[in-house]
Amino acid sequence: MNHLLKLSDLSKAEIIDILNLASQLKYERKNGIEHKKLSGKTLGMIFQKASTRTRVSFEAGMYQLGGQAMFLSSRDLQIGRGEPVEDTARVLSRYLDGIMIRTFAQQEVEDLAKYGSIPVINGLTDYCHPCQVLADLLTIREFKGGFEGLKMCYIGDGNNMANSLIVGGLKVGMQVSIACPEGYRPDPKVLSFAADCGDSFFMTDKVLEAAQGADVIFTDVWSSMGMEGEAEARKIAFKGYQINDEVMDVAAKDAMVQHCLPAHREEEITAKVFEAHANEIFEEAENRLHAQKAVLVKLLG
Ligand code: CP
Ligand code: NVA
User: Fold this and answer.
1) Model-wide pTM > 0.90
2) What is the pLDDT of residues 278-293, one digit of tens each?
3) Taking the C-alpha atoms of 114, 115, 121 and 127 in order, what is their torsion angle to the nearest 10 degrees?
């Protein structure tokens, strides 16, 4: 593994390997055991979109590993004034040990990796959110003890989260069901990967059908970053695509709820269900730190 651009680039063994290292690093942090595995290393973090969790967990993670992180807002970089990504990649490769980038087009992340000579980590694009889903898988494994025989359900927009959850969930051996309105389906490349997984994948526009017997229920915002202009139309299209009591009633008795955050209460999830499962949701947020530290050690160590 040279980069983390999207989960479809990783094998099941590589994903499990990251999760195992993440669990170890989490245990060590909780027990005051420190490793300066990335001493002297610098991670550049390019942000073309807002972030709370990704920025802070990468920055804290680098610090905990003995390295440092540099926040690079695209507003202040020449990339924001049109300097080509292939030039930015070649320049930054001479200063840094790794780059994390959050942007719009997946191609920009792929190009950064192609033209640069240091590891590139995708901190979210319109296409996918691999760091988040590694943290999600870690959380599911912690709460459920493994992946075998589990059914994971995603309700809502077929967006970056849906794309990564489908790939990640299927790769580790879960059943994956998704409920989304027509016109808001996941990326065709992801659906083609899922189709090759046979009965393990199920897609519908009916929320309760997808949630039936699910062990883990996910959702995400109806309007992702960059889609603010569509917000009103999306509120209409996604009405009913919500995790609420009705959904929890048809899910497995001990079903867990996951949300990558930020959450919009009473849109994709009710405040009641959110608070009832806050423990799982905030553990998921914490796991961003541990999962990313594992990725950083694998790529920059
Ligand atoms: N879940 C997530 O990526 O959060 P941020 O947008 O705050 O980084
Ligand atoms: N789908 C959301 C995820 C935010 C972490 C977005 O792209 O805005």
Assistant:
1) yes
2) 999 999 999 999 999 9
3) -60
